[in-house]
Structure to design on (158 residues):
């Protein structure tokens, strides 16, 4: 029997895996380096202004850094969010990371159902024994039906 062709999955030996991540252009480490450099420049300028007699520049520069730092922290918490699904042998594993919290669920392949509303705009749900795990939040809406059919195909492939 021919092996199925997957568009979203990576096949290694007997393992089929899907990895979906948020599309972020900057990693948290790069963001921290950028913020550190920005803070150094702002505080240097603020300190120079303080020395020259403009004492209000430094407190406002500090306030600005607190606001920007807060925004960076909110961004960085979700920069590594993603879903990882893999199928190996009789086991389907779904790992979802959100704000640094990893949730892992394991299902028996024979009992898994893949569901999605007909309009294709909703998330894909992996269902088994009363549990429903939504996946596909980092996949464009128009590609979700294709992903759902690929997951179904992988489940029935030997």
């Amino acid at each position: 029997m021919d092996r199925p062709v997957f568009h979203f999955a990576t096949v290694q030996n007997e393992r089929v895996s899907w990895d979906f991540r948020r599309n972020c252009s900057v990693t948290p480490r790069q963001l921290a380096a950028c913020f550190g450099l920005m803070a150094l420049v702002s505080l240097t300028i603020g300190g120079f202004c303080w020395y020259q007699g403009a004492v209000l520049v430094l407190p406002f520069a500090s306030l600005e850094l607190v606001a920007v730092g807060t925004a960076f922290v909110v961004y960085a918490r979700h920069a590594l969010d993603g879903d990882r699904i893999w199928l190996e042998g009789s086991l389907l594993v779904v790992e979802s990371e959100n704000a640094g919290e990893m949730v892992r669920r394991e299902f028996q392949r024979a009992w898994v159902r893949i569901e999605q509303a007909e309009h294709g705009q909703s998330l894909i749900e992996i269902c088994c024994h009363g549990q429903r795990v939504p996946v596909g939040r980092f996949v464009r809406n128009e590609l979700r039906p294709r992903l759902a059919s690929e997951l179904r195909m992988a489940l029935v492939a030997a």
